Structure formats: structure tokens, C-alpha cells
Amino acid sequence: MTYQVPRMSLAESDAWLGLMRVCELLPAALDAQLQANAQITHFEFLVLTSLQLAPEKTLRMTEVAHTTNATLPRLSHVATRLSARGYVERTPCPADKRATNLRLTSAGRSALMRAVPRHIAQARELVIDALSPEQLEQLAAITAAIDARLTTELGPRLGLMANPADTAPANDR
């Protein structure tokens, strides 16, 4: 059986290809900047940031996975790397010993604080300053709509966490 897919209009194709180009170029640019200036990847930056913003600089692994849109296996691998560098500590969750918490260390906070100014400058240079205030509002609305669709429809199939409470604590390892 052949499945027929309607062709995209020129406007749809331009929007789609533009989005795909940005989705490829932006992460590479952010990674390159963070690697050069702070010796961390963009994903490591996201993990450290989520911990910095958490109460007591500590979150369950499932909460970090949810915040960073990561699978638990990917997060576990990165947490091992960050732990080896002294940036995070893994500890049993006091509320549920089957779960694991990640805590930001002072070395991790220092690494993050060194990375933030140049990271913000890069984000401004590449995205924020390229758009008008109206375009920024539109971008926020567009990305929210796409995020909602991806999280709802694809999140469970990709192993992404829609809600940390939806995953059994035993998966926190």
C-alpha cells in the first residue's frame, strides 16, 4: 500500500527548511562557544543550569531529564562525566532510596557562572539581536506551539519525560 503525502507549498517548504537549518546550526554554534570558553557542552550547560535554579541546587534525575528534555540514559552518561569533573554529586533521594538525586557542587556552580556571560552574549548575537520585539513574541509563540505538539505526541515514544511524576522512581538511576 502506498501512502500519499501532500506536497508542501512554497511557503511551507521555505518555513520547514529554514527551521531545519536553524535546528542544525544553532546547537553546533552554542556547543562550539561553550566548549571553547568553558569546556562544557551545551547539554552540560543545561544540566548545570537546571540544578542551579533548583531548591538546594538538587533535583531527582527524572526532574533533570524533564527539564533538559533528555532521556534518562543520556542524562546518566552526562551526569557521570560531570561527576568525574567534580561539577555534580549523585546521592540517594531521601524521600525514596530507589531514586537518585543530582546536586550541583561549588565547582559546578563556578563553571556555570564562568560560562553564563559569553553564552548569553552568543544567544543575543545569534538570535535575540537578529529579531524585532514583535518577532521575538512570535518566536516564543511558535516554539511553544511546536514544543507542546512534540512533548504530547512524540515525548513518550522518544523516552522524553512529559512529567517526572509519570515515571517510576526506579528509573531515576
UniProtKB/TrEMBL annotation:
Domain HTH marR-type: 12-148
Record has rRNA-binding as a keyword: no
Molecular function terms from GO: DNA binding; DNA-binding transcription factor activity
Pfam families hit by this protein: MarR_2 (PF12802)
Recorded superkingdom: Bacteria
InterPro entries: HTH_MarR-typ, MarR/SlyA-like, WH-like_DNA-bd_sf, WH_DNA-bd_sf
Keywords: DNA-binding
PROSITE patterns to which the protein is assigned, alphabetical: HTH_MARR_2 (PS50995)
One of the GO BP terms on file: response to stress
PANTHER family: MARR FAMILY REGULATORY PROTEIN, TRANSCRIPTIONAL REGULATOR, MARR FAMILY
Protein name: DNA-binding MarR family transcriptional regulator
Record organism: Demequina lutea
